Amino acid sequence: MLLRRSGVSPLEAVEHLVGLQAQVPQNPYVGLWSRLERFRPDALSALLLERNVVRIAVMRGTIHLVSAEDCLVLRALAQPVLDAELARHPEYGPALDGLDLGPVLAFARPLFAERPRTGPELRAAMAERFPDRDPAALAYACRNHLGLVQVPPRGLWERSAQVTNSTVEAWLGRPLDPSPSLDRVVLRYLAAFGPAAVADVAAWSRLTGLRTVLERLRPGLRVFRDERGRDLFDLPEAPRPDPDTPAPVRFLPEYDNVLLSHADRSRFLPESQRVPPDVAGPVRGSFLHDGILRGLWRLDADRTTGRVTLEISHAGALTKRAGNSVAAEGRRLLRFLAAGAEAHDVRFVAGPS
Q1: 58 and 86, same domain (yes or no)
Q2: Do residues 337 and 206 both lie within one domain?
Q3: What is the pLDDT of residues 306-330, one digit of tens each?
Q4: Per residue in 20-39, is it b (16+ CB within 10 Å) or e — as a string?
Q5: How far is CA 335 from CA 69, 241, 249, 352, in A?
Q6: 253 near 27, Cβ under 8 Å?
Q7: CATH classification at residue 220
Q8: Are 206 and 199 contacting, i.e. CB atoms less than 8 angstroms apart?
Q9: How far apart are CA 279 and CA 289, in angstroms?
Q10: Which residues, in sequence order, are CB contacts of 156 under 8 Å at separation 6+?
Q11: What pTM was computed for the model?
């Protein structure tokens, strides 16, 4: 959805992308703004409030914004990833080694069924019930075993709130899928991000056994070879634009699926291209020019004047035409992110050649 903005609904886009990276709560809004026509952030907030989308740890054990339907499947499939993360955690892993978590989880479920809980509330309850155990480790075990959803107002547009969790069962009124289909999810990954190698699917999901899955699916897929001789799998009727298709400027959030869904980073950052320089201050995201990652961006708000500046740091020289295109899309981004500002400005900071 980065070559041309789509007219699908926010929910359809979230499902097509198999979720959006969301550990930074506002990231999905920028990600959808760059992909959808006339995207309204309050429409996504409404989906959160209506429980049609949720924020939960799934692929790679990181927080994603996914549809309620996908949550039931993806969270179930992610359990091995979360098990491994818990076992190797430098602090909590040793504290939980050999511990029977059955009583811990049985104690926590009714707490979340009663109402959503913050981290401090859960740790306090654990400390009271299991005084001889590390309450933070027990709370983290709940995060990795119970399928905890981060409930609103966290994740709403232009809102900030402490992480407050509920279980999938309590929040959605349905259990996780007891027999989720990894084959079906891999096909959906290919629909969004193919052609892709086995290593790419593994980088996206952090699951194992994917070579077996793709070999099982091979008869129904198109298979290509890349320059290194690797098999690339794709859906037979998937769009594969000509390499010379112009790609418009697109601003991406700090974490975005397109940059995190492949092991092969040369798709968007050729070896000859230096990594874009840092922007002074908190980075809010990156931008693509002609499909290539060319730089980073941040917002700088002057409270005295009310002016909000989009500061863009780029690697290498930009032609005048490229600079004008980046600035024009940057001004559109500013109108989206800082609609109430007294004035907007775009400032370039050149990086190394």
Answers
A1: yes
A2: no
A3: 899 999 998 878 899 999 999 999 9
A4: bbbeebbbbbbbbbbbbeeb
A5: 33, 30, 16, 29
A6: yes
A7: 1.10.10
A8: no
A9: 17
A10: 45, 48, 49
A11: 0.93
